[in-house]
Design a protein that fits this description.
By secondary structure, the protein is mainly beta. It has one domain (about 5-315). The protein is built from 5 helices and 15 strands. Strands 8-7-6-5-4-3-2-1-15-14-13-12-11-10-9 form a 15-stranded mixed beta sheet. The protein is globular, with a radius of gyration of 19 Å.
């Protein structure tokens, strides 16, 4: 039995009780060493600049099988990758970068959007990750924001780099999770792995590592964030590669499949974790899966009128 599966029994007791753990005010464990930060980012190639600095974003649609309440929900996910000028002091898009050169950081932004239905009501999940492209000067992701919106209420989380720590702020509708804050030492974020694949997958962390699990999924489990030990492996397999993270103390595994050659398109992912159909019910180890439908490069922010709705249908594979 693998370490991953041996954790299932350990996870049953707290899940069956229906009790939520209190959020920690700090993580007292060993500070993680972000493995891929040890290496200097090579000079950006002309190929990289031509693809990412052309004034457009990359949009990709995915068939989504989203796990929620012990069942699989059929839906669609969309990822957005785009470079932006980012304000390192204010944590927002910098509209006038030439007026504030000292505050300007060029980032690769990753947006993940999921929408699915649970019975009569809807879920809308979104995450944004802002990772500097020049990792020699700015070696850590600056900001991660997530929103988990459903008919019961909202759960918003912000992780912001502040010195040697990530400041985590929770704003939630749910009892015991409202207006909470904690500090985690600067560590690898699972959520920045997506950007690292697109920037340079050869520098992904491998071996025994410590990292912060994906925030969006942790919100669904109502488990507090902390730095977790894990093992990470990269498998190049011809035209496609697979990057896998398996946690050693929590029942969670993430596998991301992507093209081996630049621009390293994401082809799909699987994330396995414990889910419960309802309070006091038996938990299950289940897997959310996403498979690519189509991708395009476009200035989507200019495609906001009724006449552009056909482009959405094309992206989601609803018409040829």
């Amino acid at each position: 039995m693998s370490t991953f599966h041996s954790l299932i029994l350990a996870a049953l007791v707290p899940l069956l009780t229906g009790c939520r753990q209190e959020m920690p005010v700090a993580y007292a464990g060993k500070r993680a060493e972000p493995t891929f930060k040890k290496y200097l980012t090579p000079s950006l190639s002309q190929e990289f600049k031509a693809y990412w600095f052309d004034g457009t974003a990359e949009l990709t649609s995915f068939d989504l099988e989203q796990v929620r309440y012990g069942e699989v929900r059929k839906a669609t996910a969309v990822t957005v990758f785009v470079t932006e000028d980012f304000s390192k002091s204010r944590g927002v898009k910098l509209d006038h970068p030439k007026q504030h050169p000292e505050d300007r950081v060029k980032v690769l932004k990753f947006n993940l959007n999921k929408q699915f239905t649970t019975g009569i009501y809807d879920y809308a999940l979104m995450q944004s990750v802002f990772t500097p492209i020049d990792q020699r000067k700015y070696p850590n992701t600056l900001r991660v924001t997530t929103s988990n919106i459903e008919w019961c209420g909202q759960f918003l989380t912000r992780a912001e780099l502040q010195g040697d720590n990530y400041h985590i702020a929770y704003n939630s509708y749910f009892d015991g999770e409202e207006n909470l804050e904690l500090e985690l030492p600067v560590s690898i974020l699972e959520d920045e792995i997506w950007n690292q694949i697109r920037i340079d997958p050869d520098r992904l962390p491998q071996g025994v590592i410590e990292l912060v699990p994906g925030i969006l999924t942790q919100e669904l489990t109502h488990k507090p964030l902390k730095v977790e030990p894990a093992s990470a492996t990269l498998w190049p397999k011809g035209a496609t590669s697979v990057y896998e993270i398996e946690y050693s103390e929590i029942p969670r595994k993430l596998r991301i499949t992507f093209e081996t050659e630049f621009p390293y398109h994401i082809l799909g992912w699987e994330e396995t974790f414990m889910t419960v159909a309802g309070w006091g019910m038996e938990p299950k180890l289940m897997t959310t899966k996403a498979r690519k439908i189509k991708h395009t490069k476009t200035d989507y922010w200019e495609k906001k009128y009724v006449r552009h709705e056909g482009l959405r249908e094309e992206l989601l594979g609803l018409k040829d």
